[in-house]
Amino acid sequence: MKKSILIALITVFTFSCNTTQKLEKVSDPIGHEISEEGTKISLYGGSMSTIQVWENYINAHNDGDLEAIRSLSAEKDFKVMGPRGELLEGSDAHIEFLTQWFADNSPKWKSNYMIANEFTNKEGELRQWVTSGHDLTMNVDGIEIKVNQVHDARIVDGKVQMFYVYERAESPVE
After folding, report:
1. Burial of 84: CB neighbours in 10 Å, binned 0-12, 13-18, 19+
2. d(C-alpha 92, C-alpha 110), whole Å
């Protein structure tokens, strides 16, 4: 009987010490944002849902689907900063620009990468961005022109709020 009680106590003791702890994964920063004041704010890997929004946006551009572009753009305070200093404010200005640009240039983007990142500013607001790289081919007056672009797009509530376009001509050896 003593052996049975001893075995039972050892068994209970063994299992009670063998608890499984749940470890919360704390993300490591992937870089930092530098505020207007010069403060470094940690950037973290962002939600893949923001990449899906940006992929849909690029696909709508490739398809020349102005209504899809408008539906994916934020209704309020939408902005585009172009590679040559262009500033388009509002979806109407963007659609007007694209209507002419699509007709004159037949642009097509080939995506090379998309990176989601996010940070929380000092006001506690989550800022979600997608940085992407693309090869853009245009046909201007029968001449094929190729450029490389990097886009930084801010995504808010599943819509494109604003984006920057950086561009360089593709070199002949690429």
Report:
1. exposed
2. 25
Domains and CATH numbers, the chain: 31-169 (3.10.450.50)
| pLDDT for 36 | 86
Cα–Cα–Cα angle for 81, 83, 86, rounded to 5 degrees:
50
Q: Which residues of the chain have pLDDT under 70?
A: 1-26, 174
**162: Cβ contacts below 8 Å, ≥ 6 apart:** 74, 77, 78, 79, 80, 81, 153, 154
Collect all residues with Cβ–Cβ distance below 8 Å to 102 and sequence separation of at least 6.
64
CB burial of 24-61 (b: ≥16 within 10 Å; e: otherwise) equals eeeeeeeeeeeeeeeeeeebeebeeebbebbebbbebb
Beta strands at 79-81 and 159-169: parallel, antiparallel or unpaired: parallel
